[in-house]
Amino acid sequence: MGAVPGTQSTPVVERRVQLAATPIGPPLPQMLQAYHTSVIVDDMEFSFSGRGIDQLRPTQSHIPFAGKPTVTDMGYTKLPRREMVKYLRPHFMPGTYDLLRKNCNSFTDCCLAFLLDTRLDEKYRTMEKIGAVTDQHMAVVRFFTGGGYQPNPRSKDFQSCRVVERIQERRGPGSPPAEDRALDKPSSRPDTHHGGSAHDRGAGLARGGPSDERRARGLASRPWLGPRGRPRTGHV
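RE: above sequence
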């Protein structure tokens, strides 16, 4: 059937979605490398920091880091950018940033789920796994951050997997099954000895603390220590 005379259909705009990722600190094996990530939708970058959701020029949030960001095409979306921001803002309010539990990679993961029904690769999400066992390993975390990390109570119960589940429930049938959605649910203990940081521009290592990139780099450059501060087997 043709268009109804006298009416005009609104064209659906497809926007290109890209992932920007910058290594933090010196080059390390993949299991130890930390990253700052963000999402670019056409000509606008979206990232998360202590200010909440930042809307910037492409890769602008990566400027404070020494490495050059790698930009990867992820696909195309028909969803408006303002709809994504409106949905995610209540989950990523100003003052809720936490280096381990709720960082730029948590936000990127939720953006990709909302726009493309896909997930951020696990290699970028090591900090959430560490955040899941922060209480048990607080001494180690404090060592990595030079004593600068203090858990943000406003992000205590945050888990990106819960936000993603809500996004996919909102999307309806056809989304990945629950077992796939739960890939990033933190385990009871770290499955690898991760270092790294998802430190964002303008965001402190803790709740509203001063930005300190050197501490973030320290996270990325030191392996986990064994009992009494001795290196674990296999670490140098």
